[in-house]
Amino acid sequence: MNEGGRKIAMVGLPPMGCLPEVITLNTDAATHGRKCVEPMLSVAEDYNINLQIKLKDMQTSETKLYYADIYKPILDMIHFGTTKLVMCIKFEFDQCHA
């Protein structure tokens, strides 16, 4: 903003607890019951809430600060079951067991 920016968008964190490498590294049965790691989901949720509050506090009449939510759309895709193929291709070490 000190450099003259007037419209700035900040992207929140994704549901980190649902990333394949996080699931693999944080579950005992990495190949069974591929569920999101709840504590990691809470970290991302808390960060995103605090980011939105901070952006609102920093906004002025001359500057517009926008929050871009990627958490909910990605979590919706995961619960809908549409991301498995993409994750399997991106993270080769992870075998993507359902």
Automatic annotation (TrEMBL):
Protein's UniProt name: Uncharacterized protein
Biological source species: Mikania micrantha (bitter vine)
Entries under InterPro entries matching the protein: GDSL_lipolytic_enzyme (IPR050592), SGNH_hydro_sf (IPR036514)
Gene3D superfamilies: SGNH hydrolase (3.40.50.1110)
Source domain of life: Eukaryota
Lineage: Eukaryota, Viridiplantae, Streptophyta, Embryophyta, Tracheophyta
